[in-house]
What we know:
- 6% of the residues lie in helices and 54% in strands.
- With 331 residues, the chain is mostly beta strands.
- The protein folds into 3 domains: 2-117; 121-212, no CATH class; 224-327, no CATH class.
Amino acid sequence: MRARKTSWILPLAVFAVTILAGAPLRASLGVSVIPxxxxxxxxxxxxxxxxxxxxxxxxxxxxxxxxxxxxxxxSDLCLSPPADILLxxxxxxxxxxxxxxxxxxxNDETDVPLKVEPAPFSIDTDPAAARIGDGVSAVVRGxxxxxxxxxxxxxxxxxxxxHYSGRCAILPPGPSPxxxxxDVGSLDPGDHVVQIVDDGGSILASHRFRVRAAGxxxxxxxxxxxxxxxxxxxxxxxxxxxxxQAQVVPxxxxxxxxxxxSQGNLELLVKVLNACGAKSPRFWVFASGLTNVGVHLTxxxxxxGETWERDNPLGQRFPPLFDTNAFASCP
Length: 331
């Protein structure tokens, strides 16, 4: 009887160790990309055929190198019986050029080359950060022989369609780069989408943009917008030999960070809190610095026009700031 127990306990233990180690039971990976033709403006999917119980992507990261690797690590920690599975992983748009999709599953690793092509058409808006009352134009760029809009823009709610045609009235010349502008008028505040549609109804390119209410913050590389774009935060830094604008790293709706010299080295954290429900209604401003360079910090309430400012002298440690009386402009 003892020998019979050993005969089934040992294989079961090996099976459990294999699963817990995250190694595939069958060293075989099939990798595909959907759609097969990938451009630098559209997301896509990496579809992986494998054998497992409940595989999931635990890491998706872009690594240095050439071709540029997109590393996808997969783990499987379930004890249920394995089966053949198709795992789909959404990927945000990549820069154009040569890439390699590197999938790692346990001890198995598969590389699949991927060429990301520049999109034949692109669309943007002018101004890029529009406010209510601004006249907005759609800017379409591409390469074609006889580019033109076949009629005025169509609007269905917040979706604006530009009807594009590249047909020529006579024998067409070769394609060449172009830039077309279309006036889409003054729009209501909120999110909008503008798209290019060809003669057959296919969408060639699309762009989502936001029209902001008057008196709201417009984010940029040097402007941090907090509390639903009501508060505008800016900072400048200075040393004995140089100075510049602090660069923004957004975090949440009420907080963000800044870097001065290197993107990976955060120097300043700022938070605006809504304490309008407190006994003394206020917006609070908290700030903390990991620096001893000169800093000038400005927070503006774009709704009331009030400004809160603080300075840190060069050579002194930036102290924590907890101002619970910063703005009396509730609500």
